[in-house]
Amino acid sequence: MQSFYRFIDSRIGIGPKQWASLRQHLTVHTYKAGEEIYRAGDIWHDIMYINHGIVRSYIINDKGKDFTRQFYFNTEESMVANLFVLDLTSMTLQVPSKRGFEVLQDCEVIRFKKEALYRLYDRYKLWERIGRKMAEFAYIDMESFYHDILTQTPKERYVKLQHSMSRLLCEVPQYHIASYFGVTPVTLSRIRQDLKKEGKLKVDCGADGGT
């Protein structure tokens, strides 16, 4: 719980009374690699803060092709979008999620129900601010994601990824990294080889990349 407490306190500050009001609604859950936290078509009712481990969200198109949308992890490189395992659209509108959420490495998450959070919104201005900030971060993440797809090559996006999740590049399977960029694993290997020749490969995972 301390990791989650420090995260909130570092951003908006939180007193013992406010923390106690939330703490009673928090539960810790563990998942094994290969498990699905939520499946496409499920309706979200929880917010999850990731303590450790790796989760990915993915979309399957009408041809059955799998595309990774986001990675979730908790390291010094994590942004807010990586720390919260959540489909905000599904939870807010109570509609089926278009994404699945798969555990890549054994993970532990702190879960709290949407209904409990909304009750805290009504009771404390502080939690309403937190909810607003989460929505803002989710929007910023979506804008950044689609901006990069439209304006950057896969090679440029890989260089950027080296700065935002370098510690995980060798831990996430290559085909998931490739699908995140919308390329094949072979193309991703070529991108790494080109960057290595140019002296721009920050993390060398070998010819096969991750596991």
What is the radius of gyration computed over CA atoms, rounded to a whole number of angstroms?
A: 18 Å
**Which range best describes the helical content: under 10%, 10-25%, 25-40%, 40-55%, 55-70% or over 70%?**
40-55%
- Biggest sheet descriptor: 6 strands, antiparallel
Supply the helix-strand structural class.
Answer: alpha+beta
Number of helices: 9
Tell me, what is the CATH class of the largest domain?
Answer: Mainly Beta
CATH architecture of the largest domain: Sandwich
Would you kindly provide a written description of the structure presented here, covering whatever features stand out?
- This protein is an alpha+beta fold and 211 residues long.
- It folds into two domains: 2-126, Jelly Rolls, CATH 2.60.120.10; 152-197.
- It contains nine helices and six strands.
- Strands 1, 2, 3, 4, 5 and 6 form a six-stranded antiparallel β-sheet that branches.
- Helix 5 (114-123) crosses helix 6.
- The longest helix has 27 residues, at 125-151.
- The radius of gyration is 18 Å and the shape is globular.
- The model has no long low-confidence stretch (mean pLDDT 87).
Write a concise synopsis of the structure shown.
The chain is of the alpha+beta class and 211 residues long. Helix content is 46%, strand content 22%.
